[in-house]
Design goal:
By secondary structure, the protein is mainly alpha-helical. It contains ten helices and no strands. It starts with 6 loop residues before the first helix and ends with a helix.
């Protein structure tokens, strides 16, 4: 996907992705898990108790300050957007954090993520399941904004 400079086109794309995601989520469509796939790993903080986040992986591999174009196998680079390939891991995760702040003005998503991470240590399945659903519902907005900015879905779900 190329970056969309026209604000109206960008807003329309963002809204269509939100509508698609909400429809899949609310109808319990079997394809719903593939919509966000592993996007939550890009949202989780370093040191997450739940599982290794994308941030942990970037830090452990020494990619934090390297452009993705330097660390992703050249034969795989065509799968990613030009936007992501031009960024360092730090810039990519800072962009995700900025978008979260833009769409989560109350901070509720961040609170849910912290609560989810804490509950995962306790292995409270029912609580985690409900929290995860609420987090996913809210992540649709973040995901849609990032795709409308020019990221490929693949950039966010691997």
């Amino acid at each position: 996907m190329t970056e969309i400079s026209d604000p109206k086109e960008r807003a329309a794309l963002e809204q269509s992705i939100i509508d698609e995601g909400r429809q899949l989520f609310e109808s319990n469509d079997p394809s719903w898990p593939g919509f966000l796939n592993n996007f939550i790993k890009d949202v989780l903080p370093i040191g997450s108790q739940l599982h290794r986040s994308g941030r942990d992986q970037a830090e452990q591999l020494g990619w934090w300050n390297k452009k993705f174009s330097q660390v992703i196998d050249p034969t795989e680079q065509q799968n990613f957007s030009k936007l992501k390939m031009s960024q360092t891991s730090r810039e990519f995760f800072e962009t995700i954090d900025r978008v979260i702040s833009e769409v989560d003005t109350t901070g509720e998503l961040r609170q849910l993520l912290l609560q989810f991470d804490d509950n995962s240590v306790n292995r409270n399945f029912e609580t985690n399941s409900n929290l995860f659903k609420e987090i996913e519902r809210r992540l649709i907005l973040v995901f849609a904004r990032l795709v409308a900015m020019g990221y490929e879905r693949y950039d966010l779900t691997i």
